[in-house]
Design brief:
This protein is mainly β and 340 residues long. The protein is built from three helices and 32 strands. It folds into four domains: 87 residues, no CATH class; 42 residues, no CATH class; 74 residues, no CATH class; 71 residues, no CATH class. Strand 2 and strand 3 form a beta hairpin.
């Protein structure tokens, strides 16, 4: 009959009640499948891995033994006895690793971060594979106003930017050619219109009220929400719609510079014209009629009479004729005494 040798056995709870096994005595926990061996002082777990505090770990001397730190310092670490030293074989922290952290899967590709480029858990450098910049260098670059323009609609500095709305307004202004030449609806309207349309423009006169107050001589343009005001520069020219006349800014006032061309022609003795409201006429200059500031007179001896009716010239065409060769002067021609 075969012989059976059984070691002391029972549940782990029963072993705890039993206490310390004798030196060399073994105990098997039927519920956890753990094997313990006693030394007369404590029960040591064998068969799977030694365990306990790190301080209770025996000296390394037997190749192949495993020891798990179950509590206290370095809890969770598993050590391997190589016959000379205990070597940690599992990692609990990044500081446990040597070299670089490589081949970290994120679903489709892999990434690599050098330990030296991490500060307090944050990547502190950016690289495109050739150029490397630290976070501090990037921040310094972004904060450098001499390298990066700032949005400032009131500035004309080369280091500042205009907002998109400001740029749009300037483009609309340029499209309508407001500065060198454009149309305004009126130059004598003192009160802003109640319901202006976008891009309606006016020259602001003296005594303007409301939103136009204190904006004398400026061009007001409705942007759809409020009035924009533009101070005129010398040479700006505007066509005034309600007058159908053109005005230019001379540096101190808007002056009339043109309108519908006026031309007067009446033979060789009456000329005039121009674009101003007042037209100067030269009547018969050099032909026997003198035009003064407020009177018309005939030169003596020219056969022209000025009376209450107006200006009369009686020429019979025979005895008195125009001498075209002598500047259309009058001369006596053939004088015939007739018959009895």
């Amino acid at each position: 009959m075969a012989q059976t040798i059984q070691i002391k056995r029972g549940t782990k709870a029963q072993l705890a009640v039993y206490g310390v096994l004798l030196p060399g005595e073994m105990g098997f926990c039927t519920d956890t499948k753990e094997v313990y061996i006693g030394d007369g002082t404590a029960n040591s777990f064998v068969g799977r891995a030694l365990s306990g505090t790190e301080a209770a770990r025996p000296a390394a001397a037997m190749l192949g033994r495993l020891y798990y730190v179950s509590s206290g310092t370095n809890v969770g670490y598993l050590y391997f006895d190589d016959g000379a030293v205990w070597k940690r074989i599992n990692a609990q922290k990044l500081t446990d690793l040597t070299g670089t952290l490589d081949d970290v899967a994120e679903g489709t590709a892999y990434a690599k971060v050098v330990k030296a480029d991490i500060t307090s858990g944050h990547v502190n450098k950016v690289s495109d594979g050739v150029n490397v910049k630290t976070a501090a260098e990037i921040k310094t670059h972004l904060d450098d106003a001499t390298k990066h323009r700032l949005i400032n609609d009131t500035s004309t500095s080369v280091t500042d930017l205009w907002s998109a709305q400001k740029i749009r307004n300037e483009i609309e202004l340029a499209k309508r050619n407001i500065e060198p030449q454009a149309s305004v609806m009126d130059k004598d309207l003192a009160a802003p219109p109640a319901t202006p349309l976008p891009f309606d423009r006016f020259i602001i006169p003296a005594g303007a009220t409301g939103a136009w107050a204190s904006q004398l001589n400026k061009i007001a343009e409705w942007n759809g929400v409020a009035w924009d005001f533009y101070a005129p520069q010398v040479g700006w020219t505007c066509y005034v719609d309600d007058e159908q006349k053109i005005y230019s800014w001379n540096g101190s006032a808007w002056v009339r510079t043109g309108g519908a061309l006026q031309t007067i022609t009446a033979g060789n003795g009456l000329t005039g014209g121009g674009q101003a409201d007042s037209v100067t006429l030269s009547v018969g200059a050099g032909n026997g009629i003198t035009v003064a500031a407020s009177a018309v007179s005939a030169k003596a001896g020219k056969g022209v009479l000025v009376n209450a009716t107006g200006i009369e010239a009686n020429i019979d065409g025979v005895s008195i004729v125009y001498d075209t060769a002598a500047g259309n002067s009058l001369k006596v021609a053939v004088i015939d005494g007739g018959t009895f």
